[in-house]
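Retry 2 of 3 after timeout on previous attempt. Resubmitting structure tokens to design endpoint.
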């Protein structure tokens, strides 16, 4: 299987570089072990440098649309964003984002990175729908996704334990309207 070419994406303030082993750092490990960062994720709190190396090696060897979010002005890696997995047959991708560096929270970087990735996926990858899962209590994330145009498609009641309690999970999606409304031509 040939390697996928993941382009560098740029916005006004950010550079999104394909994730790889070079982004492995103690600071990145610290994000994954910071309760404020991982409280609404399905993993975290027990990461080691070696575990992160193993994780990033997988994406270095088998690239997918997965980028490190870097602030241009300071060349600082502040988080990651990806669309994985992608279902080519149905033209659907699963969105995920981690804003690890808390100094950069609330400054619009997640939205800026998300717009660039969503546009890339609709215009260059040919996706017609992008989905995501989010814990309902993660109010900042839900507001971000709604501001991007994601809509709730379903609710998984008491889906898991997050921030020390059972929480509902939302399934949300955004469509490329042109592709979503065209008839599919079967072969």
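Retry 2 succeeded. Sequence:
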């Amino acid at each position: 299987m040939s390697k996928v070419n993941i382009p560098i994406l740029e916005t006004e303030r950010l550079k999104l570089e394909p994730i790889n082993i070079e982004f492995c750092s103690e600071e990145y490990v610290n994000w994954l072990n910071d309760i404020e960062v991982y409280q609404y994720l399905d993993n975290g709190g027990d990461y080691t440098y070696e575990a992160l190396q193993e994780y990033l090696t997988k994406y270095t060897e088998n690239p997918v649309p997965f980028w490190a979010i870097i602030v241009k002005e300071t060349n600082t890696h502040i988080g990651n964003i990806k669309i994985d997995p992608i279902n080519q047959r149905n033209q659907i991708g699963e969105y995920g984002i981690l804003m690890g560096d808390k100094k950069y929270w609330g400054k619009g970087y997640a939205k800026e990175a998300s717009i660039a990735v969503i546009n890339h996926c609709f215009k260059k990858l040919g996706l017609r729908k992008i989905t995501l899962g989010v814990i309902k209590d993660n109010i900042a994330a839900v507001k971000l996704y709604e501001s991007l145009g994601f809509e709730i498609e379903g609710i998984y009641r008491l889906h898991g334990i997050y921030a020390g309690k059972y929480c509902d999970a939302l399934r949300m999606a955004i469509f490329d309207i042109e592709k979503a409304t065209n008839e599919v031509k079967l072969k």
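Attempt log closed. The longest helix spans residues 109-123.
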